[in-house]
Fold each of these.
Amino acid sequence: MNTTSRLFSSAVLAVFLALTSLTSAVAEPKLKSLRGSEIQGADTESADPFKSEKDRAPIERNYVQQPPLIPHKVETYTVTKNFNKCMDCHAWTRYKETGATKVSLTHFKTRDGQELSNISPRRYFCMQCHVPQADAKPLVGNRFQAAEGIGH
């Protein structure tokens, strides 16, 4: 290894070590309550990502057979082949307790109309059809009109 390469490597290492020591020397910002007292960061609990949230008023549907929109946040919801977070509230065994809408009977039928005792695999992944509602303006202009008789 020649002298220039060694000097360059040493300079890069020195800069890295200096930056590392600077970032570790910077203290965590102090949190204060509304009354001005200091809040200890280690003593605070993190928010529960699965804490139930009150539903917002539903946005009306625009056409017949439109799947209802989800009136709450779902960013942290897990739906895998073994677990469906939505069913913690919307299952027939839990909906009264949680105040959520129960899963429709149509979700318990196979493609051939056979009734199952559990949700049909084709209806298990809720967010294939149901999406969180947002009262947002369309990104692209359009002339869409809601179907007549749907409540508009």
Amino acid sequence: MQTGRASRDARHVRAALFLLPAFFAPSSRLRAAFHRLRGADIGEGAEIGYEVLIDNLYPERVHIGRGATVSARSTILAHDEAKAYTRDGEEVVADTYVGEKAFLGVASVVLPGVTIGPKAIVGAGSVVTKDVAEGAVVVGVPAKELRPRSR
């Protein structure tokens, strides 16, 4: 039986080992499979683009719903060490969710602890700092709702 630290270190090694294949595999299905091997929770039929970064230290804290699309060069984080590095606080580690059939545009960034609702759309290059409601369309830095959700 591994100690807590040894178990965590083994998870980090596994997450790092499969990172490059997950970045560059020739098909979305293979990229999703490598991210699953890293520990990410990815639903059936989810599309994962090239060079998608699913948290490098805590991929098991990232959850992507069935049929969701994460476009190329997007980043989904489950941890933030900024405050720990500046000695102003502690590292943030939180589960991050992308709902079923949600769409993340090219080079979008989702911060730790954020939930993207089902069928929501995140515009290309957006930085999502807060939860996004089901069916909402958000764009910008920080991402803001573009128009009210259709009923």
Amino acid sequence: MELKSSTIFKDIYDVELKNRVKSLIDFFNEEYYKGNKVAFLYKDEDNTISYNEDICFYAASTIKILAVLLMFKRIDEKVFDLNDNILITMDDLKQDSGVIKYQKEDTYYTLEELLRLTIVESDNTAYLKIVSLLGGKEALKEFGNSLGAIHTMEGKATDAFGITNCNDMLIYLENVIAYINLDNENSKKLKTWMLNTTTKKVKVENLNGPFIRKGGEFDVAYHDVGYVKANKPYYLIILTQLMKMDYKDEFINKAAIKIKDINEYIEMRDKDDR
């Protein structure tokens, strides 16, 4: 596995910023040299910092934001309606994450409820039904590729989650935030759900603003990705294969704190420059 890190700064001569970034990169290097695959990407309006940004991981539930975004676009196009009643049969149940798996009989859900459960509860049954309604994983792959992502839905033919990397995830998130910024009734729902998802890895108290996010975990995959509404907003993507490590939450949160500290320093420096 090739190690790769990169930075794009508005002010490349800022020694303090360089030192903070070095500390962050060193932190990821330490984990990398243990033999563990880890990656991150930070991006604000002026600066980008990344590490192994093009290395692929199993996407797990982070890919659900792409399916939900596509469904909202289809709803806006009047192909579907949030009030559509969708039957979830007992044969549909996916015995992994979520709450629908506990239903005792075939049950109707509104499309809005399936979307909410996909984001808030990371419900796999709801997600797979949405993918099916959209036309299957090929429709999701086509949509991701149309946005500029490279690896959408790559992987096993029988898998509906695929792989991702920081670069593709950034594309998904930028399009999700662009949709949320439309500030209409549907986009407000998506924002509220992503602010209140149960799949939290990074603790909110370790950030400097509300986190519009989606976590994901399966097998070794353990991720948190999103957009922090700080004074200087930024995208925060942390992808790891640390699921089976007892320090996985400690690692992700230490990384988030280091990234938050960099963001706060940049924001303070820019304010002083004004």
Amino acid sequence: MKNKDKYENKNENKVESQNDEQVEAEVKEDEKRSFEIDREGLSDEEYIAALEEKLGQAIAEAETCKGLTQRLQADFDNYRKRNNSIAEDMKQLGQSIVIEKMLSVLDNCDLARKYVKDEAALTGFNMMESQILGALGGFGLAEVDAIDKDFDAKFMSAVERVKDEQKQGKVVEVLAKGYMLGTKLLRPASVKVGYWED
């Protein structure tokens, strides 16, 4: 039964191929006939005029084809660029989702450090955190530099004000670190900001 199906499929493909070749041959024959000029009964001037007319038609068709080809090429280039851009956006989105999940691990590292009393354990803990930050840094993750900097609402979120004449308008303490992924802010730094009133 399978051999019969294969035989029928081969025959169908062969027939389709022959039909395609026949259609192509007919199109070529029509094109050839459309450019033929019957020389009999024409004076030299009439024959030259007819040739010039056919040449003009051929040039016009060639220009149309050239324009169409250029448009198709431009459309294809735009399509390729758009697909590359979408692929890059999806890659960055996937990375940012994973990295955002890792931020809670880094937050827990900061909290746990306060409770580690043994120096050797603290050294190992800090090395582990540095490795995590180094791995994520390879994807473009960077900490928002906030401590003692002027408060910047684009990268920081003020959760508390602290009266401090020396550090008026500056970040006094970072409660939760902020992170950037390349040029995109993943999370603003939660900070205390100094102020002063007379």
